[in-house]
Amino acid sequence: MTEAQARLAEAQARLVAALVAGGDIPDGFDPERMRAQAASLVAKRRGIVTRIRPDTALAAGPDLASEFAAYARSRTAPPPNYRTDADDFAAWLRERGRMPDPPSRKPRWWSRLLP
């Protein structure tokens, strides 16, 4: 990797951190636009997460937007996929007493037949 590529990678990492993890806004970017874009990205994630796990939206209730924003700020980077994001948000709500524990799985009828 050349020095120019390393500088570009570092600048991109700072930009991503500002957009998804509440990092400092890099020089040369309009702070108001960066905040708007960051809020838009969080809203997009929240919408997808609540479609994947509607139980999280029910558990958070009217505080969904603020709860998801707090969850998103608590992470240094978003999870690798939306399913993981949804499950992590559910766990985050559960840790705060906002969501019940998942029901225990019933043993399958055929498990009685196994030695």
From TrEMBL:
Tell me the Pfam families matching this sequence. Answer: SCO6045_C (PF26136)
Recorded hits in InterPro entries, A to Z, give:
SCO6045-like_C
Q: Where is this region: Disordered?
A: 96-115
Q: Where is the SCO6045-like C-terminal domain?
A: 9-95
Protein name stated in the entry? SCO6045-like C-terminal domain-containing protein
Q: Show the taxonomic lineage.
A: Bacteria, Bacillati, Actinomycetota, Actinomycetes, Streptosporangiales
